[in-house]
Each structure stands twice: as structure tokens, then as C-alpha cells.
Amino acid sequence: MLPSYASSPDSKMMSRHHSGAYANGYPRPNTFEISPHRFQPRASTPATRRRRKLLVRVAIAIAVAALFACSVWPGTGSFISIFSLGLLSSDSDGLLDTVRYYDLSNVQGTARGWEREERILLCVPLRDAEPHLQMMFSHLRNLTYPHHLIDLAFLVSDSKDRTLDVLIERLEDQQADDDPKQPYGEISIIEKDFGQKVNQDVESRHGFAAQASRRKLMAQARNWLLSATLRPYHSWVYWRDVDVETAPFTILEDLMRHNKDIIVPNVWRPLPDWLGGEQPYDLNSWQESETALSLADTLDEDAVIVEGYAEYATWRPHLAYLRDPYGDPDMEMEIDGVGGVSILAKAKVFRSGCHFPAFSFEKHAETEGFGKVGTIDSRGFLSDGRTNDIQMAKRMGYSVVGLPHYTIWHLYEPSVDDIKHMEEMEKERVAKEVEEKEKAEKEKKIKEQFGDTNSQWEKDKTEIQNLAKEESKKEAGGDAEKSDSQNTKKENSGAKNEAKKAES
Are 171 and 187 in contact (CB under 8 A)? Predict the structure, then answer.
């Protein structure tokens, strides 16, 4: 049997190694060749190559037409992006018109954010706040941080008054101010109800029984407002209550200069003189204590510890009670719980997952739970040596401080007892006024009946003096007449004597 590359003598097939045959063994005609073992170039161009050349020419023609259209008709960027499948754009950065690029390393928050043009998100939760809006907007006008770097965010929830309408009116006036430094940046108004049933009066809001449910709903409101308005370009988030009565105009810069992740001032409130003149208000900024930790272990899982109530004696060091009116306002105090009246926090704290717990977190909720979310024990252990492995805040390592000597003032809201006492004081005041009025009327009647005693005395004194003068004059006149009569008598007696002598 012949090998596969061989052929019989009678076969037309030739050896593929023969110079007169193709590589497949068939004879070939006498053609010019360069090498006996190479194929000759084909006389015609393949169809695929012709098709490729055609497509290249068409693409070149389209590109030339597109460039010509851009130079002649503006606004054809979208046309180009359609035909370029989004790979080209009319923008110089080469991105789609709908693409926004943010470098979050530039929004970490620094100590001098006003110089670096760092934006602040100012969040204000509102509920039945119509009476306080005028006061709040007066504070907004006076803030010294550049207004165009502050974005305002309001949440109106469960309100029965005209909070929303008045808010819109105030915002329109603020943004239309003639002073170019007054208008703020982006403004967001969020309206959502959370089913808050607690009334807004002092006794209802601050009653012990309502604290747990009320604070959990307040935490939900804060989280909704923050998640709906926080933007990638915000470096700071500032929470502010609407009923702050007095605060420094430079509060944003003052707090920011400390460059802390979470920082709060001290919050007091003015009182009437009969109540002492002033009082600590926000007791939610504190340091943890052994007693509070032991108390937390005895409570139910859903319990919420609140400060300032006899039911929960925690014996914690409160930021409010450490205030010295003459102390250094920049002195810092590490705290574990924060009050919600005025909070400045870096936006990265919230982006990393910290929030206001709307549930019992370590037996705390809302802002106090937020403080625990943000703090870390420098020892890494609790007082009894147990690892603090259940507090997510402790692992995040954020700095949470309070300023005991930097004070802002909350609006005074009288309690029921204060109101009763003030009513009693008002009754006493009215009774005293009536008594003084009656006394004045009696004195007036006496004066009308008897006249003025001083003037009467002067009158009587004058009359007595006149009488005395007349008497003295009469006495003087009587003495003169008596002396005259005596002289006459003497003369008469002398004359009689002389006459007798003459007769004798």
C-alpha cells in the first residue's frame, strides 16, 4: 500500500512535493512563480475585504458630516452622542450630560471650612412651629458663615397650624432680600407625618410617660430629613431646633474650628427672677456612668433611658451642670450622649452609617443613641471589663465632644406648675394694685375734706403772727395813752398845788 503522500504512475495526481504540482497534489499550468512552495496571489479581492473598505469609507464620511454639523449648527452634541453610542460627548470632560462626578475625599470637613468653601446642610425639624419661625429666621439672617454655602432643609410633620405656609413666606422673603449676602443655597421642604400623638405643650412633650415613643418618632423624622436632603457635596450637617432664643452669630465657625466629628454647645434657658433667673436646659449631653450601665442591664430590651427624671437616676456627669460663665468657651469635654438642640457633625459620619436610632440602642434613642453610635471608649472595655462589642459606635472611632462653657439659650417655656404660680402671682399683683388704688382714693378724700395740712398750718401761723403784731401794737398804743394821762394828772395836780399855795 502506498503511503498517503504517494500516487500511482497512472494517476493524474502528482506528488505535492513535485515542482509541477500544487500543494494539494493537482498539476498546475505553466505559470510564472517565484517559489514552487508558495501560493500565487489571487487575481481578485475577496468580498470581505471589499466590504471592510466600504464600511471604513462610510464611517469617514459620517465623521466628516458630523464635524461639519457641529461647526455649522450648535447644540448637536446629543446628535453626536447618539451615533457614538455614548462614548463621545460635547463636554470637555468626555462624560455624558447626565453623569456627575464627585470626589468624596474633598468633602471630609476641615477646621476652616468657610475658607475652603465647604458646604453645610442645615436641618430643622418643624412641628406646630408657627410662633417660632420669625425668631428662627432672624437668626438665619445673622449667621456669619457664607449663606451661599449653606443649604436649608426643613421637615414639616404632624402640624396643625400654619407652619408650612408661614415657612414658605419667610423663605421667599429671605431669598428675595436686596442684600446679595442674604440668600441661601439649595432649599428643601419635606412634608411627612409620622403619627406623633403627643401634644406640643410643655407637660405633654416633657412628660416621662411620653418620652420613649416620642423620641423614637423624632429619630425617624431626623433620618427621613437627612436621607432626603444630604448631597455628595456636603461636608457638614448642622441640626438646629427652631426654638433657640439666643445664640452667637458665629456659632458655625466656632464649632467647626474644633474639627471634631460631632460637637455640641451647652444649652441653658432663661427663667423669671422668681425662679432663679436661669437654668440648665439640655440634659441629653453627658458622660457614661457606672450607675447608668448597671441600670441599663436591669431594663427591658425596648426601654429608653431619659435624663432629668427621678425614674432613672443615672448619676451621669452632665455637660449643662459643668458650665462656668467665666470659663474658656473653647474647652472640650468628651461625651457619650448628645442633645439635639444644636449639633454640628461631619457629613462623613452619616455616610458611614451612623444615624439616629429609632429604636432602643443601648437603652437610648434619637440623639442620645446617636452619640453612642458615634463614640468610642478609649479603653475599649466597659467598666466591668466586658468587651463593648455590641455598640457599633465604639468601632467607628468618631470624636464626640461638648463645650461646657460655650452656651446658647433655649426659649423659656413655663410648665404647668410655673403657670399656676404665675397665676397666683398675678392675682396677688392685682389685689395689691386694688389695695393701693383704694388707699390713694382715701387719701385724696381726706385731702379734699381737710385740705392740705401744711398749707393750713402756714395759714394759721400767719394769722397768729398777724394777731400777735396787732396785740403788740395795741399794747404799745395803750402804754402811750397811759403815760399821757399820767402826765396830765401830774400837771393838773401841780397846778392845783400852785393854786393852793397862791390862796394861802
Answer: yes
Distance CA(270)–CA(276), nearest Å, equals 9
Number of domains in the chain: 3
pLDDT in tens, 10-69: 544 444 444 455 444 445 555 444 444 444 445 555 667 777 888 888 888 888 887 777
* Eight-state DSSP code of residue 245: E
141 and 14 in one domain?
A: no
Considering the domain architecture, whether residues 166 and 28 belong to the same structural domain is answered as: no
- Does 195 reside within a domain? yes
- The strand pairing partners of 240, in sequence order, are 342
Q: What is the CATH number of the domain that holds 288?
A: 3.90.550.10
Tens of pLDDT, residue by residue over 264-299, are 999 999 988 888 889 998 888 888 778 877 777 777
DSSP string over 120-134: EEEEEEESS-GGGHH
| Domain, as residue range, for 25 | 1-36
DSSP-assigned letter for residue 228:
H
Q: 202 exposed, middle or buried (CB, 10 Å; 0-12, 13-18, 19+)?
A: middle
H/E element holding 191? strand 187-191
